[in-house]
Amino acid sequence: MIRIFAAVAFISIWSITIAAQPATTATSAPATAQRPPYEIITPPGFQKLTIGQHSIIAEPKDLPWIQDALKDFKATTRPTTMPATLVAALKQTRPQIEKAMAADLGISDPKLTGELFDQTLIPNLEKLGNLKPPLFYLVTTQDKLKTLLKNGWTDPRLHYNKITDDVQFVPTLELSVDHAMDEYLVPAVFPATALPDQQQQMLSHLIDRTEAGLAASISVKAQAFLHTATMNFIGRTIFVPLNLQPNQEWISMGVSSTLAAKYLAMVEQMDFKTLLMRMTHENPRNPISPRTIDLAHPNDPKDLRREAMPYYVDAMGKKAMTVTLKILEQGGPDAIKKIVDAIKKQKPKDGDELVKLIKDASGVDVTEDVKAN
157 vs 7, 8, 34, 180, CA distance in Å? Predict the structure, then answer.
């Protein structure tokens, strides 16, 4: 048995490295040497060639039916939130987002918004949209692939197990916008008894499924980047200068993430509350429930095990967003700006005083909301 097609379906595990800071930001750290990208070694008796938009590794005898399969290849529907679409929507909604930022946070300096839009969001999304990972489809039979590996041909993502007489495919690929990527082999394995029309159908289906998975991964990463980069911008611009205490940092987490979600919803023409409900929904894989977090009296990081820290931060962030939404709904669109202005005027000394300040500045009492329950 060769465990290949099942593994290919998990393309969503591919990771994308993309900067969340301005594209022009310099770093004082010395550049580390980047290893040269991995190039696939063509198996003996096979050829590496490009047919249309696809790179193929196959034996010469299989090229005719492969060419027939790819000349009529048509991709199925792809996500509507690909980077190019988001860039166009971002440019179109930019005036509304800038107006909202001014009302929500008092950010009206075009230099600051230019840093966000022109130096961070748009150029990095464009890089992501231009991402073309070097995929190579190895077209062969199950027995032929096993023979190649037994005879010494290797690829870092294919492993032959002598005990089980099994070939396993490990779909690990880091997609990067910052450096040349490794060539990535995708096994297109078919039974030796498959008829020509079955071979063509199987190859077309595999290519479409692979590229659909890749497109979905890029789409998700693009949306996540848009939210994260905007959230970081708000935190860096508004809350870092406030130098909040650890038991007050939840307001920075909640406001930055919630308003970033609001602006993302504007770009994607989504319902803001629906998006926020999805983002604050409890993660069943997180052993820490947001309900157990006391925002005004958070655990000291030193008291948490290292492996628990990401779970705690995730739960804390979700609860902070829920409380922030209440402030927006009950205090009005200018509630956050009132709170920030009040902190600037008289910084509260601890988490409990911050809760009191929020009530005084916005009229919203979150005393019970921030508590663990």
Answer: 11, 11, 21, 18
